[in-house]
């Protein structure tokens, strides 16, 4: 998974850089100053901004988010759950899910993802155990 971090000189960028390093996540640092207009056009108003792209998972957020960095470290270490496994409740419970995977899993069980997000927030990553518990497993 390729991780890019758009940073500035603020403490939140330094904290995010340190947390990614501490978790062993390889990442590229990009100066937000040079990319200011493109970041604004993408709706990014807060730095740092993190983008992680892999063959079957894309994740992004802005701001210092140690909770998401921890989940990203697990996702990078174990890889994303295969689409075919989104109905396997044991595999889901042990995985870190992207928002898109959480939506697919919830829909596969014929529930409304909006109800899940209303009670668990709109996040780019979720513990599979949280989704499983919400589904009643």
Automatic annotation (TrEMBL):
<protein>
    <submittedName>
        <fullName>Glutaredoxin-like protein</fullName>
    </submittedName>
</protein>
């Amino acid at each position: 998974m390729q991780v890019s971090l758009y940073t500035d000189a603020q403490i939140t960028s330094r904290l995010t850089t340190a947390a990614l390093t501490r978790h062993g996540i390889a990442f590229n640092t990009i100066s937000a100053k040079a990319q200011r207009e493109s970041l604004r056009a993408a709706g990014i108003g807060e730095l740092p901004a993190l983008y992680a792209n892999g063959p079957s998972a894309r994740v992004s957020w802005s701001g210092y988010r140690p909770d998401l960095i921890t989940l990203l470290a697990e996702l990078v270490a174990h890889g994303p759950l295969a689409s075919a496994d989104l109905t396997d409740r044991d595999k889901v419970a042990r995985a870190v899910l992207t928002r898109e995977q959480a939506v697919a899993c919830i829909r596969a069980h014929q529930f409304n993802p909006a109800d899940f997000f209303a009670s668990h927030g709109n996040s780019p990553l979720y513990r599979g155990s949280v989704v499983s518990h919400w589904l009643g497993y």
